[in-house]
């Protein structure tokens, strides 16, 4: 079962319920607690290819839950450096630890200025409260 609702302050958030942990010109992406809670139990995550280019606001992979198949939207543009094969093998990690073991991809950012368009934790909490 999922962890308690949380939105870590050190992350930036996309309105489509994705998070980015930004470290210089690299970032780790995943889906938020709200997203995994809305989806229900994630049963399948198909990691994209390393080396693939992804674009901000565009889908880069899918997660399948007991309820639906959902696109995962890239919060920022870049090139995929690493994928979380562990979440591919154990997709329940996306539910149990969405900000830790349940991360999806690590990306080399192509435009760090895009970060400014993302929400902080307070902004994201306001968005989902609407």
Secondary-structure map with pairings?
Elements: E1 12-14, E2 18-23, E3 26-31, H1 33-39, E4 42-45, E5 53-54, E6 59-65, E7 69-73, E8 78-83, H2 85-89, H3 93-96, E9 105-109, H4 121-129
Antiparallel strand pairs: 1-2, 2-3, 3-9, 4-6, 5-8, 6-7, 8-9
What does this structure look like?
This protein is an alpha+beta fold and 130 residues long. The protein has a single domain (12-124), classed as RNA polymerase II/Efflux pump adaptor protein, barrel-sandwich hybrid domain (OB fold (Dihydrolipoamide Acetyltransferase, E2P), Beta Barrel). Helices cover 19% and strands 34% of the residues. Strands 1-2-3-9-8-5 form a six-stranded antiparallel beta sheet. It has a three-stranded antiparallel beta sheet with strand order 4-6-7. Strand 6 and strand 7 form a beta hairpin. The longest helix has 9 residues, at 121-129. The two termini are 25 Å apart.
Low-pLDDT sequence parts: none
> Architecture, according to CATH?
Beta Barrel
Order of SSEs, N→C? Answer: EEEHEEEEEHHEH
Give the overall silhouette: globular
Structural class label = alpha+beta
CATH first level: Mainly Beta
Give me the number of helical elements.
4
CATH fold name: OB fold (Dihydrolipoamide Acetyltransferase, E2P)
* Distance separating the two termini: 25 Å
Q: Mean of residue pLDDT?
A: 96
| Largest sheet: number of strands, sense, barrel closure | 6 strands, antiparallel
Count of structural domains: 1
Strand content: 25-35%
Number of strands: 9
Helical amount: 10-25%
Cα-based radius of gyration, to the nearest Å: 13 Å
